[in-house]
Amino acid sequence: MRVLGIDPGYAIVGYGIVDYDGYKFNTVAYGAITTSAGEPFSRRISVIYDDMKTILKTYKPDALSIERLYFNTNTTTAIDVAQARGVILLSAEQEGVEIFEYTPLQVKQAITGYGKAEKRQVMEMVKSFLSLNAIPKPDDTADALALAICHAHSAGNLYAKTLKGVKGL
After folding, report:
1. In whole angstroms, how far apart are CA 64 and each of 44, 90, 138?
2. On the chain, which terminus has fewer CB atoms closer than 10 Å, C or N?
3. Which positions are catalytic?
4. Residue 33 contacts residue 13 (beta carbons within 8 Å)
């Protein structure tokens, strides 16, 4: 299973792609889509959309794992991130990629076993799961890889539950 993890934003969109065979992870690619603060917002989301389409066509993921948004203070930022997230979801839908959403608590639980883990703990576990020499930068990239790992674990659990009902397995 190939999973594309996305940490949504409009200045930086972290992405991470992993393959998971039910036992081990293989890092395919990771990085960030970046936009400049001086550009009009409409241009920024256009860049995000175009780059997402390129990533989706290049790596052909089976699933997209994205952070579910929650904001409790800055509504202007929330609206802009939500708009950027919308073009990310649109690009995945257009490519026929199934979309899964996870809260930060769910991601932390899947990666560290503790839903209130510190960000540094999550990043160290991403490095460990993927046998990387260093924690990916920027942080949005490491977060995206964590989202991909979270979905792989969740999908793997659903797959295992399905097999329990099959005789002879």
Report:
1. 21, 12, 20
2. C
3. 7, 67, 140
4. yes
> In what order do the strands lie in the sheet containing 63-67?
25-34, 12-20, 2-7, 63-67, 98-102
Q: Which residue has the tokens 């209130």?
A: 116
Helix (H) or strand (E) holding 58: helix 41-59
Q: Tokens 């949504």 identify what position? A: 8
In the block, which residue shows the tokens 């932390």?
108
pLDDT in tens, 43-61: 999 999 999 999 999 999 9
17 φ/ψ sector (left φ>0, alpha ψ -120 to 50, else beta): beta
In the prediction, which pLDDT does 169 show? 42
Burial string for 45-76 (b: 16+ CB within 10 Å, else e) reads bebbbebbbebbeeeebebbbbbeeeeeeeee
Beta-carbon neighbour count of residue 88 at 10 Å? 25
Provide the residue type at 35 as one letter.
T
pTM of the full predicted structure? 0.89
**Is-contact 27 18, C-beta < 8 A?**
yes
Instruction: State pLDDT tens for residues 157-166.
Output: 554 443 344 4
